[in-house]
C-alpha cells in the first residue's frame, strides 16, 4: 500500500509555483487554478514553513466562504453552515490546539487577508476548525 501511494505521488504533477499542490494531469491543474491561486500565493509567502493540511483545508474553506460563488451541485445538498462544531464537547486540550491552528491560519492567510477582522462576524475561524476536526473519544 505504501509503495502504491509513493508511486502515485511520483506520477502526480506539482503546481509549478508553490510546488505543494498536486494534480493528476494538466487538465485537472487548469480546472483547479481558480480555487488554488489564492492558496498558492499564501504557500509561496511562507515557504519553507508550510502549514499542516488542516490549516490549508480551513484556508480553502475561508476563501470559498468569502467568494460565495455559485454553488456546485454537491453544495446544493448541504452547506458548510449545516455542519455542527460541537465546541462545548471539546476538551480544553483540544480547544488549545484549535486556537494554535487558528493563529497559524492567520499567519498563513496574511498575504491574502491582511486583517483577520475582515472575516468577522460571518466567518469564525475557531468554529471552522471545530467543524472540520475529528472528535475522538479517549
UniProtKB/TrEMBL annotation:
Domain MYND-type: 14-40
Keywords associated with the record: Metal-binding, Methyltransferase, S-adenosyl-L-methionine, Transferase, Zinc, Zinc-finger
Gene3D superfamilies hit by this protein: 1.10.220.160, 6.10.140.2220
EC number: 2.1.1.354
Database matches in Pfam families: zf-MYND
Matches recorded under InterPro entries: H3K4_H4K5_MeTrfase, Znf_MYND
GO biological process per UniProt: methylation
GO cellular component, one term: nucleus
Known catalytic reactions: L-lysyl(4)-[histone H3] + 3 S-adenosyl-L-methionine = N(6),N(6),N(6)-trimethyl-L-lysyl(4)-[histone H3] + 3 S-adenosyl-L-homocysteine + 3 H(+)
Descriptive protein name: [histone H3]-lysine(4) N-trimethyltransferase
Amino acid at each position: 500500500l505504501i509503495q502504491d501511494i509513493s508511486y502515485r505521488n511520483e506520477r502526480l504533477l506539482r503546481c509549478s509555483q508553490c510546488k505543494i499542490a498536486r494534480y493528476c494531469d494538466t487538465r485537472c491543474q487548469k480546472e483547479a487554478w481558480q480555487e488554488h491561486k489564492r492558496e498558492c500565493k499564501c504557500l509561496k509567502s511562507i515557504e519553507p514553513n508550510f502549514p499542516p493540511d488542516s490549516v490549508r483545508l480551513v484556508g480553502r474553506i475561508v476563501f470559498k466562504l468569502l467568494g460565495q460563488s455559485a454553488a456546485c451541485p454537491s453544495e446544493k445538498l448541504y452547506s458548510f453552515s449545516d455542519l455542527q462544531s460541537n465546541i462545548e464537547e471539546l476538551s480544553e486540550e483540544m480547544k488549545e490546539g484549535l486556537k494554535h491552528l487558528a493563529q497559524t491560519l492567520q499567519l498563513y492567510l496574511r498575504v491574502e487577508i491582511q486583517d483577520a477582522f475582515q472575516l468577522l462576524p460571518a466567518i469564525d475561524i475557531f468554529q471552522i476548525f471545530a467543524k472540520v476536526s475529528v472528535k475522538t473519544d479517549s
